[in-house]
Amino acid sequence: xxxxxxxPSWVICKSGTSVKIECRSLDFQATTMFWYRQFPKQSLxxxxxxxxxxxATYEQGVEKDxxxxxxxxxxxxxxxxxxxxxxxxxxxxxxxxxxxQGWNEQFFGPGTRLTVL
Amino acid sequence: xxxxxxxxxxxxxxxxxxASLNCTYSDRVSQSFFWxxxxxxxxxxxxxxxxxxxxxxxxxxxxxxxxASQYVSLLIxxxxxxxxxxxxCAAPYNQGGKLIFGQGTELSVKP
Lengths: 117, 111
Hints:
The complex is a heterodimer.
Chain A: E1 4-7, E2 10-13, E3 19-25, E4 30-38, E5 45-51, E6 57-58, E7 67-73, E8 76-81, E9 90-98, E10 107-108, E11 112-116
Parallel strand pairs in A: 2-11
Antiparallel strand pairs in A: 1-3, 3-8, 4-5, 4-9, 5-6, 7-8, 9-10, 9-11
Chain B: E1 4-6, E2 11-14, E3 19-25, E4 33-38, E5 45-50, E6 54-58, E7 61-66, E8 71-76, E9 85-92, E10 99-101, E11 105-110
């Protein structure tokens, strides 16, 4: 149980284009989903917290107009990187917590590797 | 002090030995802790969670929580080369559900 999927697993795009990444909880309902970014040899950096049906909460320094997050249902959240540039190239990982779970366990998706040319 | 701190390593142990990974935390995090394993190029995988003082065992893994000293550790018995990975310690902020991660400890198990 507690499986989280992401799609696509990798994407290469040209500078200036937008890329959408999907995060799904496959066998549970997730009240909250999180989006992280990880650069090589660095730890996870939380970008935003996404609750179903409400606006995402962005961490300091993360541009909400550049990283659009939609959490339309208890099993799906999407991250859209708008007007991507080479510095946005990174490993993007989502995670989800179980509805009603009080202990904050997060289950991670497999990640999406974005390369912007 | 950072909310959650780990030694970055690398920690190198021979196959079959006990690997000991340590993490200290501040008063700004709640006292439920998680250990994640992250292989190179992959996303983190939850391997242990601990909420109460003392030890919690799961197979070759033992998590230890000492609230008085504000540290949590992960012991891996009979270490295998397949255990070579980065291990992340995490705890939630007091004020919200988001997790704070340590910088991770890189473990290398030599055959």
